[in-house]
């Protein structure tokens, strides 16, 4: 995955050991500071043991040199307590706490029976920190050091900063560490800054959120239903999402994109994807349009207007809006992702992000921003209330999203928050208004662990949070206690199930001996643990499955419990190769001026585009419908009255129903 460390530990001379390759291997002891190198065969299980006292924190990593590995941790009783399966190359990090003294086993297996070389390093073993600050430092171990992308953490209590620390490197090329003055790309966390600006203009009488967006951008198409400013900032407009749309064209998302070009994307859209206000569908297009509205109303550039009317009045003197990936921003952190060959790869920012993202800020400035949200000196309390009140959809249901912020309850406390994910940077800002608390994390590494902000909140706000029943053993993966289950019963549940909320996204359930597992479209396999004869938890993922069993033990549908409850229906269509041949050909979309080829290769239907590194396999769903991956997750073929295939509609979640017409051969 990632990692290194700057926690104060003794520097040990690193020793490298090389073992002979065997398909099965006895446990080999490993100690802090040692590195072992070896090769995995497709059926290998390599095991390492470490003797631990109780309440010790362990951090290490496997350098995946030429093979993707899965790391599994077992306690002295032989129970699995954690599993790590991240990037295919580079560092696969692991960390866990010992709850009992004894020998812990670290198993390394190849992902999907691949083979190749790896090395394992046990970097740190120390007592579990007892104070929140020390524990946060342990959580941040993998982002600490002078050779890894870094991160920053800020905690506020009663409106004041009580913890702030920077880790790792802001720039690996020039050996610049993360510091208090580092400007972080906060990505989509920028959205509520824009809505704050809109509300300032509304307070001044220069606009209303209930105005038609065409009052300000008249060149936008007039659809059957008006789209308001409120619709575009609550993700209910029905417009295509521009980043997902340009991804279908094969265009690199980091290339610069002007607001005029984003308007052109909407102009080419034949109809709205939904009636405005009818459904919530996360959408950066609306925020790009809102940026244009602010510029036209104020007759100033968005970065300049925000500087003079928002940032400087609040005292945020080190915060800027980056209008283009080419703009120089002093003291900014550079983004990184794992490189296929190991190490890290430098990554630029998204094009066209201004408004939807684009803000670069320091941790000190973000603290000032939070203080103003808690007790506004700039703006009004009515504005903050509007931002933090969930929008109501046309059917009367709450969307859970206000004006640029998610509003939820966390362990008994109201909190509003927004994350950010540019191509590499990761951001989270969480505010708990009832206690004047906040947690902010920033990182310039694409694989930053998104569960860390909640863990930090648990550490610092423990006295204010409702406790939850403690899970058995090390709670590193969120595993549930295993139910005594006859895995042969799972055969009746195996098969493919398509999510109703996201056509084309298919969950495939399988059994391999005693192992039961699932695999989502274009994602790795994930093991399942039975919690009853119809409910299963996903190992290492905060999610669960409930099958709706029939009397014979089979199921026609299921519910995925992850960020809500989502139904999926069993897929029964299994087309023969000769049927698949009917779908082959070249298809052209006039809307996005793009051509895709559908080809039959080795009994599989493949979607091809000259810009894609790899072809996408089309997996059958309902009749004439197939699932793929990104940038096209769902392909629904269209037939004429005679039954001839005339084209297909392509979707990828935020952009839906882009029509591709079949070209004459």
UniProtKB/TrEMBL annotation:
The signal peptide stretch is 1-20
- Name the chain's protein: CubicO group peptidase, beta-lactamase class C family
Keyword annotations for this protein, in alphabetical order, are: Signal
Question: Does Signal appear among the keywords?
Answer: yes
Q: Record keywords: Cytoplasm included?
A: no
Q: What Pfam families does this protein's entry cite?
A: Beta-lactamase (PF00144)
Beta-lactamase-related domain residues are 137-447
Species this chain originates from: Gracilimonas mengyeensis
